[in-house]
Specification:
By secondary structure, the chain is mainly α. 73% of the residues lie in helices and 1% in strands. Strands 1-2 form a two-stranded antiparallel ribbon. The chain starts with 7 loop residues before the first helix and ends with a helix. Keywords: Cytoplasm, Endosome, Golgi apparatus, Membrane, Protein transport, Transport.
């Protein structure tokens, strides 16, 4: 009676009844064993084994029942071995058990006695095994037949006539062992496949689950085949593999084909797979369309890749059998024939094939490009790649060459690499672009030609401009800044010692980053500017201009490009950044002795300050930057320098806050007295003193304002700072700074501090220790003696 339905409770009841039947008959069988009563032993063992004839149980519960009987059969085998207990020769016993009434108990008993028969060596192992495997055909119920043949395989495993075995036979002994296992496997596979046809279609899903639970019973035969001593490559190629694949292909069963192909790949040696690659791949193309062939092929390629990595000595074998070409063709056929294969499946196959090519043939970039080209063709057949899993596989495909070669330059030579990236969505394109930049920085790769930079920036275009017109507002600000900082670091890494090639690189970078939009330009223009200035200084050190067919690398031409580039920043608007870059360019132009160019950059900086910079803090920073840069520049003539210093001094005096005015004005004093041998003639002590006196007046005004608003004069920090400037210029030899000026300023500071204390303000500020340190410095100089000491002796403390 076949199991058509029944719940879990029913099956539990039937299992309990079966176990009870086994235990009941086992009890009487053991009594007969103790009495050495062969007739009773056979009677009750047959009754016990009859419980395995049930059709009511699922495979899992049938297995529980089978294991109870199996434990008893082990005791029975021990009894059969001891002829002194039952009194029959094993040959007669082998004949006797064949008279059991039902075929299933008969076959279990026959297998048990057959095992003893082989051990007695009274007959060749191959003959007994052949007899057993043939007679097992009498049980055709799928589940009962599978477990019976599983029992046969188990009791015969250590009795095969293989080389080195106690049961080794004649010259064909290995073939006899192989033939037995293959025959048993063939019959088990047929029984396993037939399970799907048992019962109505409404229980098909449950049947497939049950079949999956039974698969190891079939797969064990292949494991045994893989362990038989003496199965060489020729036997495997001519007999073993064709017979197995015949069952796989002809079975026309999805579950069986997938599982058995997986077993073949796992249990047989790698070198066998390599030498029979064409046969294996041909079978893969003949599998059912619903079989997940990609996993089978992926496992095969992974095993072969690991085999190639195990020893360099085996690589020539891959070349001899043309492994890559065969795998490539097979994958192409599978993808073309399995029209229902999802795009993620095809991408997974390409990733495995690429990994195989990189591990086995790392020097063959044409193989890598070939795989990428096939990927492009497949992606082109899809309107839009939206599958997140497929996108992940494409990223893995593009990342593999970077990880293998540790050099983006190699990847840049692959013509199909950017074509694959074009199929990524915007988010994934950015992820891949970041991986590329990280690879460059990690390996300190040198991208030194304009052509390669062009290809590179095409690859990372997702980071340097909005793709498909999509704005960047949706992106998290922190992530956006990280992306753009990475692009900036990349630009700084681009370099070439040949100026004519470097100017081409700068042109290429500029072309790409200028399309980046207002949010990106503040990140990408500064590194471009500094790369160009590095080239300017290189040209200046070589004392010559470089001209080529397409570009003219002269400092003047480069400064023109930089002026146009920085001008864009002022419209972003990022005037503070643009001002800093103008000043950097002005200093570089000064080093190149280009006075008109340097003056123009300063003019642009002042225009930005007047028209664009309105924030008071930004104005303070800008003025100090202008003053500091102007102080270092030595290229200006008297007229131009006077114009610029006058402008700087005027802007300083018009800052919003009095302390800021004061500090900016006394900083301007350095524009008139520059202690630098290269700036001969800029030692206008009188105008430097005027700046200091003007700063002193502003400091006084600040003190009065503080007194009016807070009732106290406030800290004297500004006076102490001005005092230090007086001391600096006095020490540098400014004749207009006298000891009396310094002494008067010291007395003023003491007066202000005393007045503040008298008003009850006892707060100590940082100006107190600052002033104390200044006085200590003067005393120290007095004690040193010499010319400096004589100068400081004139100051009375």
């Amino acid at each position: 009676m076949r199991r058509l339905g029944g719940g879990v409770e029913d099956e539990e009841k039937w299992l309990a009844e079966g176990i009870a039947g086994i235990q009941h008959n086992a009890f009487f069988m053991h009594r007969a064993l103790d009495a050495n009563n062969l007739r009773e032993v056979l009677k009750y063992s047959a009754l016990m084994l009859s419980e395995l004839r049930t059709s009511k149980l699922s495979p899992q519960r049938y297995y529980d029942l089978y294991m109870r009987a199996f434990d008893q059969l082990r005791q029975l085998e021990i009894f059969f071995k001891d002829e002194s207990r039952h009194g029959l020769p094993v040959v007669d016993l082998y004949e006797l058990v064949q008279h059991a009434g039902n075929i299933l108990p008969r076959m279990y008993l026959l297998c048990t006695v057959g095992s003893v028969y082989i051990k007695s060596k009274q007959a060749p192992s191959k003959d007994v095994l052949k007899d057993l495997v043939e007679m097992c055909r009498g049980v055709q119920h799928p589940i009962r037949g599978l477990f019976l043949r599983s029992y046969l395989a188990q009791v015969s495993r250590d009795k095969l006539p293989e080389i080195g075995s106690d049961y080794e036979g004649d010259a064909n002994t290995v073939m006899d062992a192989v033939e037995f296992v293959l025959q048993n496997f063939t019959e088990m596979n047929k029984l396993w496949v037939r399970i799907q046809h048992q019962g109505p279609g409404t229980v098909r899903e449950r049947q497939e689950k049950e079949r999956n639970e039974l698969r190891d019973l079939v797969g064990k035969n292949l494991h045994v085949l893989g362990q038989i001593e003496g199965v060489d490559l020729d036997m495997y190629k001519e007999t073993v593999l064709p017979r197995i694949l015949e069952q796989v292909v002809n079975g026309k069963d999805e579950l069986a084909q997938y599982y058995l192909m997986e077993c073949i790949i796992q249990v047989f040696p790698d070198e066998y797979h390599l030498q029979t690659l064409e046969t294996l791949l041909a079978a893969c193309t003949q599998l059912m369309p619903t079989v997940d062939t990609k996993i089978v092929l992926t496992q095969l390629m992974d095993r072969l890749s690991n085999y190639a990595a195990s020893s360099p000595d085996v690589l020539h074998e891959f070349l001899q059998v043309e492994a890559f070409a065969k795998l490539n063709n097979a994958i192409g056929k599978v993808i073309d024939t399995q029209l229902e294969m999802p795009i993620v499946g095809a991408m997974t196959l390409f990733v495995s094939l690429l990994t195989f090519a990189l591990r086995v043939h790392p020097d063959r970039l044409d193989y890598v490009d070939q795989v990428l080209g096939a990927c492009v063709v497949k992606l082109s057949s899809v309107p839009k790649l939206e599958d997140a899993r497929a996108m992940k596989q494409v990223v893995a495909l593009l990342s593999a060459p970077l990880e293998k070669y540790n050099d983006i330059v190699t990847a840049l030579t692959l013509s199909n690499y950017p074509r694959v990236m074009d199929h990524l969505d915007d988010g994934t394109n950015k992820v891949m672009a970041m991986l590329i930049i990280q690879s460059i920085m990690k390996n300190n790769s040198c991208i030194s030609t304009a052509d390669k930079v062009e290809v590179l920036f095409e690859l990372i275009k997702g980071l340097i401009k909005d793709l498909d017109g999509n704005a960047t507002e949706e992106l998290d600000e922190e992530d956006f800044q990280e992306e753009q900082n990475s692009v900036a670091r990349l630009i700084n890494m681009l370099d070439n010692e040949e100026p004519e090639e470097m100017i081409k690189i700068i042109y290429v970078v500029r072309k790409h980053i200028m399309t980046g939009g207002t949010r990106r330009l503040p990140f990408t223009i500064p590194p471009l500017v500094f790369s160009a200035l590095r080239l300017v200084r290189q040209l200046e050190s070589q004392s010559g201009d470089i001209t080529g067919e397409d570009v003219q690398a002269t400092p003047r031409r480069i400064f023109q490009i930089l002026n146009q580039t920085i001008e864009v920043l002022s419209s972003v608007p990022r005037p503070e950044l643009a001002l800093r870059l103008y000043l950097q360019c002005a200093e570089a132009a000064s080093d190149c002795d280009l006075e008109p160019v340097a003056y123009e950059f300063f003019t642009q900086a002042f225009i930005l300050y007047e028209e664009e910079i309105a924030d008071s803090k930004a104005q303070v920073t800008a003025i100090h930057l202008i003053v500091g840069t102007l102080q270092r520049i030595n290229v200006f003539g008297v007229e131009n320098r006077d114009t610029l210093t006058h402008k700087a001094t005027g802007y300083s005096a018009r800052l919003l806050k009095k302390p800021d005015q004061c500090r900016a004005v006394y900083a301007c004093s350095h524009l008139f007295w520059v202690d630098d041998d290269d700036l001969d003639g800029i030692k206008d002590g009188e105008r430097a003193l005027l700046c200091l006196r003007r700063a002193l007046r502003i400091a006084n005004a600040a003190q009065q304002m503080a007194n009016a608003t807070r009732g106290s004069s406030g800290p004297v920090t500004l006076f102490v700072e001005i005092l230090n400037k007086y001391i600096y210029f006095y020490e540098k030899g400014n004749p207009h700074i006298t000891p009396s000026d310094i002494q008067s300023l010291i007395e003023l500071i003491n007066t202000e501090m005393q007045s503040d204390n008298n008003n009850g303000n006892t707060r100590r500020t940082h100006s107190d220790p600052f002033f104390t340190s200044t006085l200590r410095y003067i005393r120290f100089q007095k004690q040193k003696g010499g010319l400096i000491g004589d100068k400081y002796d004139l100051i009375k403390l």
